[in-house]
Amino acid sequence: MEKEELIEEIKVLILTNKEESIEINPKFLQYFELEELIEIRDNLIIKKDKIRESTFDYLDELYEKTKEDSI
C-alpha cells in the first residue's frame, strides 16, 4: 500500500458528513512513514467504531425509554 492510498483512506475516515471534502496537504507525506500512516488509519477506524457503538447504545436506551412512556 502506498502513502497516497493511506491518505485517501484517512480522509474518508475523518469525514463526518458525506457532502464534505477534506484536503490534506500532500507535503505531509514526506513527514510520515508508511507505518505511521497505517497506525493513524487504524486508530481512526477504532475511534469511529467506538463512536458508532456508543451511539447505538444511546439510541437503544432512548428507544426503550420512549417505549416505556407510550405504554
Radius of gyration: 18 Å
What portion of residues belong to β-strands?
A: under 5%
The total of beta strands comes to 0
Poorly predicted runs are: none
Class from secondary-structure proportions:
mainly alpha
Distance between the termini: 55 Å
Number of separate helices? 2
Report the sheet with the most strands, covering strand number, pairing sense and barrel closure. Answer: none
Summarize the structure.
The chain is mainly α.
Give structural notes:
With 71 residues, the protein is mostly helical. Helix content is 69%, strand content 0%. Helix 1 packs parallel to helix 2 (34-70). The longest helix has 37 residues, at 34-70. The radius of gyration is 18 Å and the shape is elongated. It starts with a helix and ends with a helix.
Features:
elongated; 71 residues; mainly alpha; 0% strand; single chain; 2 helices
What are the SSEs and their pairings?
Layout: H1 3-14, H2 34-70
